[in-house]
Write a structure and sequence with these properties.
Helix content is about 35%, strand content about 20%. The protein is α/β, with parallel strands linked by helices and about 500 residues long. It has 2 domains: about 10-145, NAD(P)-binding Rossmann-like Domain (Rossmann fold); about 180-415 and about 435-480, Dihydrodipicolinate Reductase, domain 2, CATH 3.30.360. Strands 16-15-14-13-7-12-11-8-17 form a 9-stranded mixed sheet, with helices on both faces. It has a 6-stranded parallel sheet with strand order 3-2-1-4-5-6. Helix 1 crosses helix 2, helix 5 (about 125-135) packs parallel to helix 6 and helix 6 (about 155-165) packs antiparallel against helix 15 (about 440-455). The structure holds 6-O-phosphono-beta-D-glucopyranose (BG6). 6-O-phosphono-beta-D-glucopyranose binds near residues 178, 216, 235 and 347.
């Protein structure tokens, strides 16, 4: 099946941090893929901006390398055209150096959609936004993309939001959470709101619990400096995992308009039962990996990767039992689990339904297991609905738990579009549905901050786990004491 391409109007995108890791791994490849799909009008320009002294040729060589390393289908003509749309400007966020040059380039197309992408550390957001404002670069068609992390806690998130808000109205601010751009995450909304089947059972009367797992097999090598200041709770839970939880738990929005969707997500965040010093020990587990094995080879522990003299107390794993205090979800635990150097790379949401109230079958039928809906984000995207059916053939009524399996790659045969491709195009179109609003980000921090405080004040260090396993045994205990298990095999 051929993917449908919606045309976009010509745009200029200025990427701050253009020589950095995010630009190289995600942004430049995403723009190339969109060019290949015919969504990069010929007049559009990609303007790389960074403090590094680089010639145009050097930056284009960097962009070419970024594309060649990421794509499985390079097209020489499209690549040549794409590179000709790229330019570079040396700009210092902390001084006026380079800004006149940037202004002149943008002045060549004052009417065009203009995107400023802040692919830089949050400490530079304030300076860059202030200079964009001071140089009069904000037009009616200007948008700014703010990468995570938006702050380290509620207070710093508010400061970041205030700094950005001084220059850009909220309708122009696109706080990116790339999980919202993943195909399956959007499919979750399609499943819930384009089918009548699920809605009647999507509540505490029928759902036993929900599991959200985002497991990574890689460690933090190369990013240890940043990671050690964040940890799994800030890096993954405050944003990606809470966003997934919101999409599972929110009420049907009135429309798919950005604010209609975000209003519903905000209500979920506000309804999360607090976790603080009184209950954090019982409801959360944090861990840190030790040396172990991954992909058949020995791998070092977190401390060794970090290479710091003093032991770090940063968590590389977190498991949480969260609850939502509202009519739909009261009493339904949402077990969240994420970590680095786990047994495999898998992200999925499991909605586990309640068991049948009474069995009409005798023991020879075997165990009747509860239905579950598994929404898999990666590595292979798809949806499975686990049902009980009869074993085929004669021999009496023997029951089996089998999935109705819809693997998207098999069902649709289309390339897996990277989240950044979709999200950048949404920015160009001005569609904020898949971006976090200011109050959402702040509400997420409001829930996360007391957990961080509780951990800081506890005398316990993160629990060790061996790299290549499913995390500390306490995480298994967290769910098993409720009579449930993590569904590692789903
Ligand atoms: C990022 C985190 O936001 O998401 C990383 O900072 C993490 O630590 C990454 O590895 C995971 O994204 P994905 O798309 O590979 O699951």
């Amino acid at each position: 099946m051929v993917a449908r391409v919606i045309s976009v109007e010509p745009f200029d995108i200025v990427v701050f941090g253009a020589t950095g890791d995010l630009a190289k791994r995600k942004l430049i490849p995403a723009l190339y893929e969109r060019a290949l799909a015919g969504q990069m009008p010929a007049e559009s320009r990609v303007i790389g901006a960074s403090r590094r002294a680089m010639t145009l040729e050097e930056f284009r060589a960097f962009a070419r390398e970024a594309v060649m390393e990421s794509t499985s289908h390079p097209d020489p003509d499209v690549l040549a055209r794409f590179l000709s749309q790229i330019s570079y400007v040396m700009v210092d966020a902390a001084s006026d150096e380079g800004w006149d040059d940037l202004c002149q380039r943008l002045a060549q197309a004052p009417e065009r959609v203009r995107v400023f992408y802040l692919a830089v550390g949050p400490d530079l957001f304030d300076d860059i936004c202030a200079r964009i404002g001071a140089h009069g670069l904000v037009t009616g068609k200007t948008r700014v993309v703010v990468e995570k992390p938006v702050g380290k806690n509620l207070a710093s998130a508010r400061a970041v939001n205030a700094a950005v808000g001084k220059v850009f109205p909220e309708e122009s601010v696109f706080r990116i959470d790339h999980y919202l751009g993943k195909e399956t995450v959007q499919n979750l909304m399609a499943l819930r709101f384009a089918n009548a089947l699920l809605e009647p059972v999507w509540n505490q009367a029928h759902v036993d619990h929900v599991q959200i797992t985002v497991a990574e097999s890689l460690g933090v090598a190369g990013r240890a400096g940043y990671y050690d200041t964040a940890g799994a709770l800030r890096d993954m839970v405050q944003n990606h995992m809470l966003q997934l939880l919101c999409l599972v738990a929110m009420e049907p929005p009135v429309t798919m308009d950005a604010d209609a969707v975000r209003d519903e997500k905000l209500k979920v965040l506000k309804a999360l039962e607090p976790i603080n010093e009184a209950n954090a020990e019982y409801l959360t587990v944090r861990g840190q990996y030790r040396a172990g094995a991954s992909a058949g080879g020995a791998v070092p522990g977190y401390q060794e990767e970090l290479g710091a003299a003093d032991p770090s107390e940063t968590e590389t794993f977190v498991a949480i039992k969260a609850e939502i205090g509202n009519w739909r979800w009261a009493g339904v635990p949402f077990y969240l689990r994420t970590g680095k150097r786990l047994a495999s790379r898998v992200s999925e949401i499991v909605v586990a339904f309640k068991p049948i109230p009474h069995s009409v079958f005798d023991d020879s039928a075997g165990q009747i297991r509860a239905n579950r809906l598994v929404i898999r984000l990666q590595p292979d995207e798809g949806v499975k609905l686990w049902l009980m059916i009869k074993d085929p053939g004669p021999g009496g009524m023997r029951l089996q738990h089998v999935p109705l399996d819809m693997s998207f790659a098999e069902a649709f045969g289309v390339r897996n579009v990277d989240a950044y491709e979709r999200l950048i195009m949404d920015v160009v179109r001005g569609n904020q549905t898949l971006f976090m609003r200011r109050d959402e980000v702040e509400a997420a921090w409001r829930w996360v901050d007391p957990i961080l405080d509780a951990w800081r004040n506890s005398r316990e260090a993160p629990k060790p786990y061996t790299a290549g396993t499913w995390g500390p045994s306490a995480s298994i205990a967290l769910i098993e004491r409720d009579g449930r298990t993590w569904m590692d095999d789903a």
